[in-house]
Write a structure and sequence with these properties.
alpha/beta, Dihydrofolate Reductase, subunit A, two-stranded antiparallel sheet, 5 helices, 5-amino-6-(5-phosphoribosylamino)uracil reductase activity
Length: 194
C-alpha cells in the first residue's frame, strides 16, 4: 500500500507561511549542504523549473509519484504563470473554488480529500506527497503516514500553521534527524502504531 507523506518547510514556532502566505523567509536556509542533501533524497519535491535550474531535471523520482496540494499552495505558482509546478509528478489540486484546471497536466477536484487519498493508496506506484497547506493537512491528518519537516531556525510569530485541525492528539515516532550547518534540520516522523 502507498503512503501519504506531509513534506513541508516549517519555522521553529510551527508556521509554514506568513499571515499573507509569504514564505521568502525560508530562502536564507537553502544552503549548499542542505540543497545537496535535499536534491539527492527528495528530487521530486523540487519544482520542475527548480530541478532544471539545479541541473537535475531528469532525476528519477525516488519516493513520490503523486503530489497533492490545496488551492493556497497552488496559487503562488499560478500568480507567476507556472500552471504545472511539478510536471514530473501526477499533480492533484484539491479546491472548492478552482473549478477548472488551467493546465491539462494538473487535476483539480472538489472530492473529499480522505476518500481521494484512500483510493490513491490502493493504487500501484510510489508514495503520495502532501505539499500543503494547513487546511488540507488538517483534513488529511488521519491518513498521514509520515511527516517530513524541513525546519528552519527562524521564528515568525504568526502565520499559517502546520495543521488546521480540531484538537486530537496523534502519536508519531521520530525516525530520522538530519542537521545542517546553518541550524536547519530535516525531521522525519512516522505514525506510531496503535
Amino acid at each position: 500500500m502507498r503512503t501519504l507523506s506531509y513534506l513541508v518547510a516549517v519555522t521553529i514556532d510551527g508556521y509554514i507561511a506568513g499571515p499573507d502566505g509569504e514564505f521568502d523567509f525560508f530562502a536564507p536556509y537553502l544552503t549548499p549542504d542542505f540543497l545537496t542533501h535535499y536534491m539527492a533524497e527528495y528530487p521530486e519535491a523540487m519544482s520542475t523549473p527548480g530541478r532544471a535550474g539545479l541541473g537535475i531535471a531528469d532525476a528519477p523520482n525516488r519516493r513520490f509519484d503523486t503530489v497533492l496540494m490545496g488551492r493556497g499552495t497552488y496559487q503562488p505558482g499560478l500568480d507567476i504563470g507556472l500552471t504545472s509546478p511539478y510536471a514530473h509528478l501526477r499533480q492533484i489540486v484539491l479546491s472548492r473554488s478552482l473549478t477548472e484546471s488551467p493546465d491539462p497536466a494538473v487535476e483539480v477536484t472538489a472530492e473529499d480529500p480522505v476518500a481521494l487519498v484512500r483510493r490513491l493508496k490502493q493504487q500501484d506506484g510510489l508514495g503520495i506527497w502532501l505539499c500543503g497547506g494547513a487546511d488540507l493537512a488538517g483534513q488529511l491528518l488521519p491518513e498521514i503516514d509520515e511527516l517530513i519537516i524541513k525546519q528552519s531556525p527562524v521564528l515568525v510569530g504568526a502565520g499559517i500553521p502546520l495543521f488546521r485541525a480540531e484538537f486530537g492528539p496523534r502519536a508519531f515516532t521520530l525516525a530520522e534527524v538530519r542537521l545542517f550547518d546553518e541550524g536547519q534540520q530535516i525531521l522525519r516522523y512516522v505514525r506510531t502504531a496503535a
